[in-house]
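Re-running the complex after MR caught last week's input typo. The corrected sequence lines follow. Everything else is unchanged.
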Amino acid sequence: MIKAKVFVTLKPSVLDPQGKQVMNSLHSIGYDNIEEVRVSKFIEIKLKSDDLERAEDEIHEICEKLLANPNTETYSWNLEHITGE
Amino acid sequence: MKINVISFPGSNCDHDAFHIGKIRGHQVDFVWHKDNNLINPDLIIIPGGFSYGDYLRCGAIAKFSPIIAEVIKFAKQGGLVMGICNGFQILTEIGLLPGALMMNESLKFICQHQFITSVNRDSVYTKGLTPGKALDIPIAHKEGNYFISNDGLKSLQDKDLIAFRYCNELGEITKESNPNGAIDNIAGILNEDKNVLGMMPHPERAAEDKVISQDGQEIFSSIEKFFT
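Corrected-run output:
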């Protein structure tokens, strides 16, 4: 099996009110060193096949089709072989 | 006028839209999202709610419902499609309208009366409205913060595709009257052919005497004039 870790991130040009709120909270509890916070999505996907090339293609396709909104988000992923559970 | 109201699992304003259509004397039919056929509509309403629980992103999963292919076909042929609240979110996700609805700047679900004004007189939906006149139309959303790239915004402005903007009771478009952080105070937009409208406020919740505001009636009257 293959495990895909997919990261869906707001584009730098898009404001992230959640990230800003988290940053404000961190500042309020004393973490003055924090410059910026961006909140993203992390999605774990297990694939049945062990074919890395096929997995690359499929993950790319589903990012485009569903996982990310191209207007506001970018995405990246990495793949690793895992043993079935 | 024949109205089709599309129901998704999680739609919760479909009955409101149906009700307002009925009391205004129209033939209204619900169309289930798994259906493959529309019921000969003049107007499709994609109602408010939380289709598929708003999982992943609001409206993201609805785009794979079978009826959506028919809605897109109908819109591409010039048919009238009106998306309200979650319906607006769905219209952006399926690519009939540009941009996206982001989380409100306050991170809060906002449910309140809100003034909006039409800024366009060149569509079926806005022809009968007076630009600059404040309409009291309720909003109820957490993801209503309209976002589009700078180029996209310029294109909306240049092509006169902004239908509604948030304003104060005098019809003035101010920063203070923007409830959710939407870019350029945008409350509703049109596609390039101006037959598809998406708006966050709920005109169907302000269209009869039983409720506080009746200003939503002006929007429905505008559409009706097109068919009479």
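None of the earlier attempt is carried over here. Chain B touches chain A at residues 56-57, 60-61, 64, 92-93, 98-100, 102-107, 145, 147-149, 181 (CB under 8 Å). The mean pLDDT of chain B is 96.
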